[in-house]
Amino acid sequence: MPTFEREGLAFTYETAGDPALPAVVLLHGFTSDLRMWHPVIGEFARRYFVVAMDLRGHGRSAAPDDLDAYTAEELAADVRALFDHLELDLCALIGCSFGGMIALQFAVTWPERLAALVLSDTSAAYRHPAYDERYWQRERSIDASTEVVRKFGTAELGRRAAASVADPFLARGVRERYARLSAAGWLGCARVRKERPDLLPLLRGRLTMPVLVAIGEDDPVRSASEVMAGELPDARVVTFRGTGHGVPVLAPQAFAREVLRFFEDVEEGRPVAGQRTTG
After folding, report:
1. I want to staple 60 with a disulfide (CB 3.0 to 4.6 A). Which of 12, 78, 98, 157 is the partner?
2. What is the pTM assigned to this prediction?
3. Dihedral angle, C-alpha 185, 66, 199, 125, nearest 10 °
């Protein structure tokens, strides 16, 4: 698997499709890795050069022990280093959940590098008065898991997660997945989630590229996504019926269809603004 380096740290990525085609870069969610995109990469690669990377602290990319090495700005700079490594002057960027937070940080910092931006299952700020109780319940759950990792490591968290899985094969998979996670990466990126800049005041002025916001109808992050979408009057907002957190994984065919339709409209110069619900 190819790698690139930034400031002495190595980052892993994979590609699909013809490098001569327009590029699309994919950023995964918290505690996941680039493999979360495998259900949609094939569809995107029919028309685009697709690049998926493991973010700092995840997958096979570097996970520094120093928690101060984890900030939204540093993770966004890692993405820029990927762009520069592959000589991508302009491309589309797709981020899901935590990856959407980093995609937003990239977009407000270097908007001139993006032809289009897709934000799925994500938010532009950790805190807002309009966020509902389901959002905060999820945050409390993540906080509790983070405390387990802080005290006992990721393997213990995996053991606890696997306890509720009846199938022994699946339970072992859960334990192994968590054991592979870096404790420093978990703790560092968990802090990024909470201490990232509030980007809501910057969205209207800095997001000069076309934007698609994808929201799961049953996602506990929905209220936060809707607050973000409210600051983007020219964005296309698509709600996926009966879908929870992680639209690209839970509804890959519908997600790919909507993203490709959005890219086609952008390329043809058609208006993208509007809101609708899809199955």
Report:
1. 12
2. 0.96
3. 50
Task: Tell me what the pLDDT averaged over the chain comes to.
Answer: 96
Reported in sequence order, the residue ranges of 132-253 that DSSP labels E, i.e. its strands, are 211-216, 236-240
CA distances to 70, 114, 119, 200 from 222, rounded to whole Å, are 26, 25, 12, 16
The stretch 80-109 carries a mean pLDDT of 98
Phi-psi category of residue 269: left, alpha or beta, with phi > 0 → left and psi -120 to 50 → alpha: left
How far apart CA 64 and CA 192 sit, in angstroms, is: 14
The H-or-E segment that residue 4 falls in is: strand 3-6
The H or E element containing residue 234 is none
